[in-house]
Amino acid sequence: MPQDSNWQQQVWQQPPMPQAPAYAQGAYGQPQPPQAAQPPKKSRAWIVALVAVVLFFALMFAGLASCTSMVSSFGSMGSFAASTSSEVDYLTHDAVGVITLDGTIQYDGTTCSPEGLKAQLDRAEQNPHVKAVVLRVNSGGGTATAGEEMATYLRDFSKPVVVSSASMNASAAYEISSQADYIFTAKTTAIGAIGTVMQVTDVSGLLEKLGIDVDNIASAESKDSSYGTRPLTEEERAYYQAMVDQINESFIETVAEGRGMGTEEVRALATGMTFTGIDAVENGLADEIGTLEDAVAKAAELAGMSSYDTVSLEPDYADLTSLLGLLSSADASEDAAALLNEWARHGTIDR
User: Fold this and answer.
1) Is residue 159 annotated as part of the catalytic site, yes or no?
2) Which of 171, 177, 178, 225 is catalytic?
């Protein structure tokens, strides 16, 4: 599996502006007398605090008002209606819950993590009105262990689950999807990629050219084998290859069990590469070409519902991007920004 990259953040500091001299030189180099001192500008920093408080409450009320329309739902007639994740707990009609996996499968607390997915599955499990779940997947995979755990949670879920594949449903994301009752895919979806990879980068040649020597003081000979400061030995390469093969075998068995296929049949498809949605339907990795609406209708069918709502099952946390969007759309945001900038430059606000 691809390893996470480390990123460095650089902070650039603006040098302070030079202070104006007490005397300025005239046209002929003669010192000019100092000008009469101007009366100090009256500080109105309290306006900043007032603006900040007013803006905070304006954003809070705007956010509460907008929450009723941020998440859409649709019923058996295909019409969309307003719904939010908080309203899932107050459903009065049967519904299909939609959980979105959009991004890397990892341990980050979102629905792309074991904890995040389980929280939403538990929410659907405990709500008597949520009769089925659609998993909307747009992911190229991620951490093997996270995918394994999430696949287990989906397999143990008692209600019908239908997968709707977006542009990509690959690797660990497909391992999770394979545990659903039915998989929809688009014709152009990149789906499958059954395979496992471990990456060790050897930068020892570059370090040598740069004249950098790295001494790893380790408790065992192979403790530093993945650090990239030396090439792998043949024994270490064989060890890691066996580890990758073992993890991949678990992947194959999970898919075979979830899809009701033979292990050898899945092994033949475990090339590590994706298939188009068209090929996936033909080789058994997916069931049908269809859209998100098709997946919702299928989930309702599997749950025996003829009339239903559709609600989004998402973590209950504020999105900073949404908050910034509200800030940029607020009527007073430009005036508030101007006031704050003026205060930041001069320490006072003049009107």
Assistant:
1) no
2) 171
pLDDT tens-digit profile of 136-175?
Answer: 999 999 999 999 999 999 999 999 999 999 999 999 999 9
Structure tokens at 230: 């030396």
Three-state SS string across the chain, please? CCCCCCCCCCCCCCCCCCCCCCCCECCCCCECCCCCCCCCCCCCHHHHHHHHHHHHHHHHHHHHHHHHHHCEEECCCCCEEECCHHHHHHCCCCEEEEEEEECCECCCCCCCCHHHHHHHHHHHHHCCCEEEEEEEEEECCECHHHHHHHHHHHHHCCCCEEEEEEEEEECHHHHHHCCCCEEEECCCCEEECCCCCCCCCCCHHHHHHCCCCCCCCCCCCCCCCCCCCCCCCHHHHHHHHHHHHHHHHHHHHHHHHHHCCCHHHHHHHCCCCEECHHHHHHHCCCCEECCHHHHHHHHHHHCCCCCCEEEECCCCCCCHHHHHHHHHHCCCHHHHHHHHHHHHHHCCCCC
For residue 16, give both structure tokens: 């302070």
Is 131 a catalytic site residue? no
Taken in order 64, 82, 130, 99, the sign of the CA dihedral is negative
Half-sphere exposure of 22 (CA within 13 A, CB side): 0
Name the residue among 160, 116, 181, 180 with its Cα closest to residue 142.
116
Tell me which of 223, 307, 322, 328 is the catalytic residue: 223
293: closest CA among 164, 197, 166, 206? 164
Neighbours of 199 (CB within 10 A): 9
Is the pTM higher than 0.70? The answer reads: no
Rounded-to-10 torsion of CA 103, 107, 111, 114: 130
* Separation CA 140–CA 103 (nearest Å): 7
- 238-263 per-residue burial string, b: 16 or more CB within 10 A, e: under 16: eebeeebeebbeebbebbbebbebee
For 216-247, the pLDDT digits (tens) are: 999 999 999 999 999 999 999 999 999 999 99
